[in-house]
Amino acid sequence: MAILLSSSNSTVVNRWADLLKGHFETEKTYSLGELKKLCASKKFDAILLHRMLIDIPAFSGLLSLSPATRFFLLSDRPDEEEALTFLKMGIVGYGNTYISSPRLIEALRVVTNGGVWLGQKVIQRLIMDTSVKAKGDDGKNISASLLTTLTRAERNIAELVACGNSNLEIAADLDITERTVKAHLTSIYAKTKTGNRLNLALLINLGKSPQG
Fold first, then answer.
1. Fewer C-beta within 10 Å: the chain N or C terminus?
2. Spatial distance between the Cα atoms of 68 and 46, rounded to a whole number of angstroms
3. Local structure of 25: helix, strand or coil
4. Which of 191, 182, 183, 187 is nearest to 145 (CA)?
5. Which helix H or strand E contains 94, and what residues bound it?
6. Is the pLDDT of residue 179 over 70?
7. φ and ψ at 170, to 5 degrees?
8. Strand order in the sheet with 46-50
9. Mean pLDDT (whole number) for 177-193
């Protein structure tokens, strides 16, 4: 499984390479020009993109060269708005440039298996956005059939997740422990085949089937 590491900062690229050593095969590039050539000529399972190397027009150009590539953007100063902007353009992952080794390995395993990796704040923001869009939306036939499998307690928790509430907020609202909320969510994810709170929120708010 080949991962391309791209940054104009060699220290950053070498750090990523050290973190992934023994877990993924990696290749390095240090310029936007070289990155474009590699995108056009080779196929990678994922590309780690340093935010300092890329801007919105340049990223759009990369996508046109390699539309099937899974791009993971890493920023020195992660920002929700930045994450959402690039997510809408096509990235599948967003995180801190100096992410720890276990989290980077986990993140790459998620995105190379078709998933999306985002920080908790970004996920909550997306959930809130879908909650707003859901107002007046009647396309809920997909969610209705899946949600009938939930108990009343699970349905209450699922609805609160879809409103953007955290586990701690849900526990306080329902007067139960956070551990109980997590246990219910494990069951909810299994029954609805969603796997995580973002997919669950999309299912409830927009009637969309689970994402990869």
1. C
2. 10
3. strand
4. 191
5. strand 93-96
6. yes
7. -65, -45
8. 25-29, 2-6, 46-50, 71-75, 93-96
9. 91
Q: What pLDDT does residue 180 have?
A: 95
Domain co-membership, 54 together with 94: yes
Query: Residue 201 sits in a domain of what CATH number?
Result: 1.10.10.10
Q: What is the mean pLDDT of residues 154-177?
A: 89
The sign of the torsion formed by the CA atoms of 28, 29, 34, 37 equals positive
Mean pLDDT across the chain: 85
CB-CB contact of 36 with 61 (8 Å): yes
Same domain, 8 and 110: yes
CB 73 within 8 A of CB 94: yes
Residue that is last in its domain, among 93, 118, 143:
118
pLDDT > 70? residue 137: no
Which of 70, 90, 118 is the last residue in one of the domains?
Answer: 118
What was the pLDDT predicted at 20? 95
CB 120 within 8 A of CB 190: no
CATH code for position 89? 3.40.50.2300
In a domain, 178, yes or no: yes
pTM for the model stands at 0.68
Same-domain status, 42 and 75: yes
Distance of alpha carbon 112 from alpha carbon 92, whole angstroms? 9
Tell me the mean pLDDT in the region 164-183.
91
Contacts within 8 Å (CB) and 24+ apart, 11-16: 12/50, 12/97, 13/50, 15/98, 16/48, 16/104
Q: Which domain holds residue 104?
A: 2-118
